[in-house]
Design brief:
Distance between the termini: 95 Å
Number of helices: 1
Radius of gyration: 36 Å
Largest sheet: 2 strands, antiparallel
Strand content: 15-25%
Shape: flat
Number of strands: 2
Structural class: alpha+beta
């Protein structure tokens, strides 16, 4: 037989708790999406300003120096130079097949710089 309690909330406490947790999660997702949208609109505004300033500078160059052509390249900042490496070898030998020795005791090296052929 079912018992009747005086407080109607006692039987639905877990349901109310789940509803509060769900409402909190929905609110958190809403805040994250809104913050992301604000940041994206800020980035879009920055890109619009950069585009406008670039177009203005090109138009100024065309106005004051009509015979001058503006290159499509645009400086995007400095990057770190890739690491360099020197290669050295000492007493290098190369045998083709079982008995034909092509190199014997070769010592040398290749320094970093322009590519070699």
């Amino acid at each position: 037989m079912a018992t009747v309690s005086g407080d109607p909330i006692d039987g639905h406490l877990s349901l109310i708790l789940i509803f509060l947790i769900l409402a909190t999660l929905v609110g958190a997702v809403y805040l994250v999406v809104r913050r992301w949208a604000n940041r994206e609109s800020g980035h879009a505004h920055t890109m619009d300003v950069l585009k406008c300033s670039h177009m203005l500078s090109v138009e100024l160059v065309k106005h004051f120096m009509p015979s001058f052509t503006v290159q499509k390249y645009q400086f995007r900042g400095m990057t770190a130079k890739a690491g360099t490496m020197d290669i050295a070898f000492d007493s290098l030998s190369l045998t083709i097949g079982k008995s034909r020795r092509v190199l014997d005791g070769v010592t040398g090296g290749v320094g970093a710089g322009p590519p070699l052929a």
